[in-house]
């Protein structure tokens, strides 16, 4: 069943409809999230999520065939998301909601148009199974060494 999102735009009961381009991913982080900066100096994180579609199958010889893996790069500009991302590492299973925006691919050096590319803006993340990032394990080892 499909129900459009609605909101009341004014006291005159004029309804407006909002467009929505949202992607939901359930997969594993391909690497620890990376903190970067925009050209204006604003911090943001990027991280990649690996997903597969379909079950494992077997070929004619009885060997297992894994479904293909798709990789999705997500950009987290919201400072609220910056509190969680340093604490999840490569291999963590996550549920991610992101807004989808298509960016123009521009032109190649020879003038040939390049295909549009998707930009996934982080909106929400739930951690299903957490794996510690590489830096966090090192920090705990250093703390243990300092206590001795």
Automatic annotation (TrEMBL):
<feature type="compositionally biased region" description="Acidic residues">
    <location>
        <begin position="136"/>
        <end position="148"/>
    </location>
</feature>
<dbReference type="GO" id="GO:0006264">
    <property type="term" value="P:mitochondrial DNA replication"/>
</dbReference>
<dbReference type="InterPro" id="IPR012340">
    <property type="entry name" value="NA-bd_OB-fold"/>
</dbReference>
<dbReference type="InterPro" id="IPR011344">
    <property type="entry name" value="ssDNA-bd"/>
</dbReference>
<dbReference type="Pfam" id="PF00436">
    <property type="entry name" value="SSB"/>
</dbReference>
<dbReference type="GO" id="GO:0042645">
    <property type="term" value="C:mitochondrial nucleoid"/>
</dbReference>
<protein>
    <recommendedName>
        <fullName>Nucleic acid-binding protein</fullName>
    </recommendedName>
</protein>
<dbReference type="GO" id="GO:0003697">
    <property type="term" value="F:single-stranded DNA binding"/>
</dbReference>
<keyword id="KW-0238">DNA-binding</keyword>
<dbReference type="InterPro" id="IPR000424">
    <property type="entry name" value="Primosome_PriB/ssb"/>
</dbReference>
<feature type="region of interest" description="Disordered">
    <location>
        <begin position="103"/>
        <end position="148"/>
    </location>
</feature>
